[in-house]
Amino acid sequence: CKILAEEAIKLSKKIKYAKGLGDGYTRLGILEKNKGNFQDAIAYYQKSLFYRKQLNDPELVARVYSNIGNVFHNSAQFDSAIYYHLESVKIAESLKEDGLISKYYGNLGIAYQKNESPDEALKYYTYSFEYAQKTGNEEAILIATINLSSLYIDMNEPRKAIGYLLQIEQTLSENAAPEDIGNIYNNLGNAYNNLNKIDSALFYFEKAETIYASEELPELGVCLSNIGILYFKTGNPEKAKNYLRHSNSLLLAANRLEVVEDNYLYLAGVFSYQGKFDSAEIMMDQHILYRDSVYNQEKASKISEIQTMYETEKKEQIIKRQKLINTGIIIAAVLV
Length: 336
Hints:
Layout: H1 2-15, H2 18-34, H3 38-52, H4 58-74, H5 78-95, H6 98-114, H7 118-135, H8 138-154, H9 158-170, H10 178-194, H11 198-215, H12 220-233, H13 237-253, H14 257-273, H15 277-298, H16 315-327
Helix pairs in contact: 1-2, 2-3, 3-4, 4-5, 4-6, 5-6, 6-7, 6-8, 7-8, 8-9, 8-10, 9-10, 10-11, 11-12, 12-13, 12-14, 13-14, 14-15, 14-16
């Protein structure tokens, strides 16, 4: 695919074909994003944006803005993600295309949710859901429902999430994408976990795991993290350790650092629970490292403010955080 995209770009340059250049650089951006090479992906998307702006096709421009926003979201740079998703929303609104508006409102909601702005996220998720219903498109309604449910879980309103998810589960057609079905099950697992209904949570997490694994979907890493956290909560540290480590191996390969930092925190809790404090400190060091890495990506200008934190979060913090882990759950809902 990369060779074909590069050949298309080469040919398009010869004939001065702006659309071909825009499409070629978009394909290269997608390839790099899927490999976790986010800086390269953004560079290619910016080139695509340059050429697509020369065309009289705002929808193509909106797609690139959305793609850039998604890359910033995947690399945990949520302020930048919000900016680019807002640009795509403006174009979609000007085109008055309900399907596009629903899609881009949903992406904007994701960025606000991950940026810990639940009120803004709820506003845009609700818009996304309403416009999806206008289209009558099953996939659009499904995605909007999944996003809303993930937010309600984060807002500690799991019963609202379950209501949406069970309703949409009953209406699924045979053509529903496996990824969307897996996301429904994963979010149901999170919601039941939040209600301390452990058997139901594990039932849905395992259904999601089966789909993600069989389809080789990237969401498998997030699902394994959820299962590992569940096993930690129920006092099964060995299973928790195995799932969290497997999750990290997948997420690190995909450069999904925002979940990796949480996994290391729970691994610190596992080792602390087992009385292995040297290993717990190593895991805490990794948690701080990846937490700061995510922080640096989001707030590079403030890096000096966190340089003194490393040495202060050692064994005493492990014990304090252990107490928090036993009473609270970090929700890693899959977002689309």
